[in-house]
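Let us practice reading a record.
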Amino acid sequence: MRALLALLLLLGAPAPARGQAPSPGKPPSDFVRREAEPAPLPEPLDRLAAGMRAGALSTHVAFLASPALEGRGLDTPGLAAAAGYAASQLSLAGIPPLPPGDGKGALAAYFQAVPVREIREPGGTVTVERREGATATTRTLVSGVDALVPPATDRTVSAPAVFAGYGIRERSPERDDYRGLDVKGRVVVLLEGLPAGEEWRTKALRSRYAAEDAEDRWAVKLETARSLGALAVVGVEGVEWAARITGKDRPPAFVFRGVADESREAEPLLVRVSPAGGQALLGAGPAPNDQPRPLPGVTVTVRAQGRERLAVSRNVVGFLEGQDPGLRHEAVVVGAHLDHLGREGGVLHPGADDNASGVASLLEIARALASSPRRPKRSVVFAFWTGEEEDKIGSTFWVSRPPWPLSKTTAYLNLDMVGHPWTRKEIEDLLADARLPDPGAFLAGLDPADFVEPGLARYAPELGEVLVRAGRGTGLALHLDWTEGVTGGSDYRPFARSRVPFVRFFGNFFPGYHGPGDTAEALDASQVLRMARLALATTWLLADR
């Protein structure tokens, strides 16, 4: 989720074969009203969900977000302690480690070793050369001043530049900024955000192209450019540049990366530049024309540099074997990331919502399933990821070297930041954006705390019926947010890139996000309980089909 860690690792694997036939299609409406009385869940699931308690969840959160764990930053004693805690809780619940498989991503007891690269003193430059006839002018932008170059070790990209406006391809509203442009083998220059016009101000479009978090803001644009063969993207930021470069987007002293596959070095870089840097690229005034066009005579050279050190982190993995001999070779994988930001500038970031809340939920889901008098038909894998804040390192490593085959993974469920509910105003705005025919009927008698927006893989419509049943059984109203997931901001992203059906459980952002105010005291324990019950019900229903 950090802005400087948006270098994408794209795992374009073909869709693996699934172990069951898909359902006919998704539910008739993406909005599911809360029932006056929850529809009974099948036994023993109903009793397992009812037996979950907010107190147990709060105990986990209090430990994980305590000052003793120092924010659980990657490669710190605090994160190691959190991993040990998760493993011990699995053991106490009677959940064994995942048994040895074919040697890929091998586990030792509950732990999967995950190699990481620490890049210290990251920096770099962006050089813009403009030739007009016999005249050549050069301007160099420096990372941390008027550019932000992604951390890497000695990588250089140099190519002619082309301007693709906002870099948007949408059917509604209709726009294709790449129409008529050849960007293969070139550096693509893009403007941040969205074009003018109210039609571009929907919640979905703002979330996709104008999010506060830089990784989220640029992810779709970067993926579009990559798919068209671009070597790099230079994103021109707006008037908030000074605040960003001195605030949360300031260049760090060091970052972590997953150990790269050979293909990673061929993926496009995302470089962000100041408005003045944009003028150097586009030869324009303070408000550049957003009309896509070639940039004749303009060559951009990006140089990234840094010192590298290898380290090892750990995923924590538990396993519950399914009851059905014919189906137990398939599994539902449920995951939550253990890590957070540690200390930044000497300030502790506790990470209670992000993501002690998800870890606590997963621990209690594991405990509930282990206590069941009957297990679901399929197996369940419980995965606690490392390095989510550093570009999804742990989950990406799992998918690239899966200890449990992706072809036998029927679904992946992700729990991240489940501790804060929606407000009524936010729900009303969502209904207005969706143009629901009768929003009053959906809102009638609805407590905003009972509203959840799970994300679901658009390519797996059969997930919708399961979520509807789980929501009704746990007394919740839902909006099913269908998405491809390949540019997602959490650990479902690498699964989406391998076309594994996924569900994203997420509560809501809050003012303390990625800050020192993300404490256990600020968390809504009843919200965590609601989300944990919904995720438990979804896990069981998917595993027991």
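A brief commentary: DSSP finds 14 helices and 23 strands in the chain.
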